[in-house]
Amino acid sequence: MIRWLIVVVLALVLMSGLTEFLRRYGFGRLPGDFEFRAFGRNWQLPIASTLVLSMIAALIARWI
C-alpha cells in the first residue's frame, strides 16, 4: 500500500513539473481538455491529454 502511495505522489510531482514542457507541444490544449474558471481559480481537466500520454506509456512499456 505504501509503495502505491509513493508511486502516485512521485507521478503527481513529475507531471506537475513537466506541465509547462508538455504544454509547449500541445498537451493540455487538445480537444477534450477542459479548462474553466470557478471560485477565483483556473481549473484544468486534461482528459484527452491523459489518454494520449497513457497510450504512449503503454506502447513504450510493451516495446521494452
Outline the structure in words:
This protein is α+β, with helices and mostly antiparallel strands. It has one domain (2-63). Helices cover 62% and strands 19% of the residues. The chain has a two-stranded antiparallel ribbon. A hairpin with a 2-residue loop joins strand 1 (33-38) and strand 2 (41-46). The radius of gyration is 14 Å and the shape is globular.
Quick rundown:
The protein has 64 residues and is α+β, with helices and mostly antiparallel strands. 62% of the residues lie in helices and 19% in strands. It starts with a helix and ends with a helix.
Search tags:
64 residues, alpha+beta, globular, two-stranded antiparallel ribbon, 62% helix
